[in-house]
Design the sequence.
């Protein structure tokens, strides 16, 4: 270690990160982004059609594995009426609720020691005063009830964005860009627009204060520029290629680089019951990284088919020196 | 009056509306939008360059008058260091503060019985917890201080968006689309993005409950599609061509059509001290109006140069039958 600031390292070597919420998409976008981040963790089932059976998940996993042979993917399923309590113990995947679920489902999941991933927002309903700003907070009561009824069910409140959520839940994930932006940053900036939306400054502060209670999900949700700059921009922020340097930059600024390994790897693996990382290391250095304005998507030279990353055309403070 | 619902009229004739905050732009956009709404009221000074002298305002007014000869325009100025207290009594325009202003300015304005138009938002400052969601509410203390120091100064809090603002100020204007949309509607919809941003359901409800205490500003802020669907969409919602039918539709739904004339004409004219309307009437009928997907801007056939209106490609409940 050396550098102008002798109290903090200018390089750091960590096990590879484990991302617990990856949108790896399909087709050309999948081919572009899957090899980029070397993610290890749940790949999201919101495809066309959505992943609702084990066989569909297995088939999707084979495609991903071909694109990134050294990565350990966890396939997820939408919990749906076809997945009866009797079938749940046979599932190998974490599940996302979709549509109607019952207490029998939750009980069967608890028995099977499964992970329940929740997009924890109430549907917007103006008559009840619910909008995208308070939808997460309004959901917390339901989350508490579920936790009390099934205390051993491993529940992840995905992509927590509010002070209320991180202060009142046990297991939650956090999306990289929510550690950086607030509502001002996505208003009038479609490439920063994602759901749940980033909220108040105090919410961002609360997320930043609790890295040890959270594990990140990449939630890198790439969309082509044409889908982000249309009449109704798609929700999602693309962070895959810069995620680890971005986290190092933030943790360095917050003077808690010692917590980086836990945040990007250990806590999540422990929660999911995954083995110790076996697939190499990543060495980061405190050297500026120029984030490109956009990435080309495989198979297209069209500007509309590029993907604009978070922090596009800026410099972040840390770079990847080496991966082994 | 006739129609299926005998308790409310199916047609209504009113004096022409007076809009108290019109963005009439420059060049081709000015040529397109100025004749559209037949607005009567202050035309905004945020041009390139901004209107900072009486001569500039007079010259701009001549261009507008040529495009809409029968309209009574009120030109506004940015209050700026060149406008000293000694010069203020000579001004004929309402003013918008820009940069540093002093108590002498306010005092001189009060003496001259001028109208002070305020964009009432504190600048966002994350360190102080200020963001676009609470910027208006945070400004109210300043507004109260100003009002207490200069109780006779006619102050308009422009484009109020919050329950706090309409409950704690005397004179404010309201933007048409803020009576319809909340944050959910502009998140992921650049043609609904405007500043101040639309906020919570309870804020919209509060605006709707107080039509008699407010007067509308059209604040129709047109931008070409290319500026709305880029990487950083411009702020502004375009309502000019549908404003009056839109208001009739809402007031009909709220069962207060009897308040429509006050809202779109009388209250604002009284506040500004304008003469009774002399320029004709508008007759509205309860018949569906199909709002086009976009309007072409003069001098261009390019799709990027069209303007997408509020309620594009939908039907609203009332139409203009006749203007005289």
Sequence:
């Amino acid at each position: 270690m050396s550098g102008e600031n002798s109290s903090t390292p200018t390089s750091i070597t960590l096990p590879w990160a484990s991302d617990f919420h990856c949108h790896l998409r399909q087709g050309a976008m999948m081919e572009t982004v899957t090899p980029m981040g070397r993610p290890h963790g749940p790949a999201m089932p919101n495809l066309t059609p959505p992943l609702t059976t084990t066989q569909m998940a297995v088939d999707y996993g084979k495609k991903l594995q071909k694109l990134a042979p050294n990565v350990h993917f966890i396939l997820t399923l939408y919990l749906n009426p076809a997945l009866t309590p009797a079938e749940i113990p046979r599932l190998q995947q974490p599940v996302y609720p979709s549509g109607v679920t019952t207490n029998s489902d939750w009980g069967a999941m608890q028995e099977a020691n499964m992970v329940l991933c929740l997009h924890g927002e109430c549907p917007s309903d103006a008559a009840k005063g619910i909008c995208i700003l308070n939808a997460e907070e309004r959901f917390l009561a339901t989350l508490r009830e579920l936790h009390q009824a099934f205390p051993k069910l491993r529940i992840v409140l995905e992509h927590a964005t509010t002070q209320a959520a991180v202060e009142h839940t046990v297991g939650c994930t956090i999306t990289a860009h929510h550690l950086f932006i607030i509502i001002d940053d996505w208003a009038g900036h479609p490439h920063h627009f994602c759901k749940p939306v980033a909220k108040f400054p105090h919410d961002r502060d609360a997320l930043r204060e609790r890295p040890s209670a959270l594990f990140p999900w990449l939630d890198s949700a790439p969309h082509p520029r044409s889908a982000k700059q249309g009449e109704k921009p798609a929700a999602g922020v693309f962070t895959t290629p810069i995620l680890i340097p971005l986290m190092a930059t933030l943790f360095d600024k917050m003077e808690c680089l010692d917590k980086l390994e836990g945040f990007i790897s250990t806590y999540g693996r422990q929660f999911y019951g995954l083995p110790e990382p076996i697939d190499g290391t990543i060495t980061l250095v405190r050297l500026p990284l120029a984030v490109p304005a956009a990435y080309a998507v495989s198979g297209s030279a069209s500007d509309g088919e590029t993907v604009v990353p978070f922090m596009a055309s800026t410099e972040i403070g840390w770079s990847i020196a080496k991966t082994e």
Notes: The longest strand of chain A covers residues 11-15.
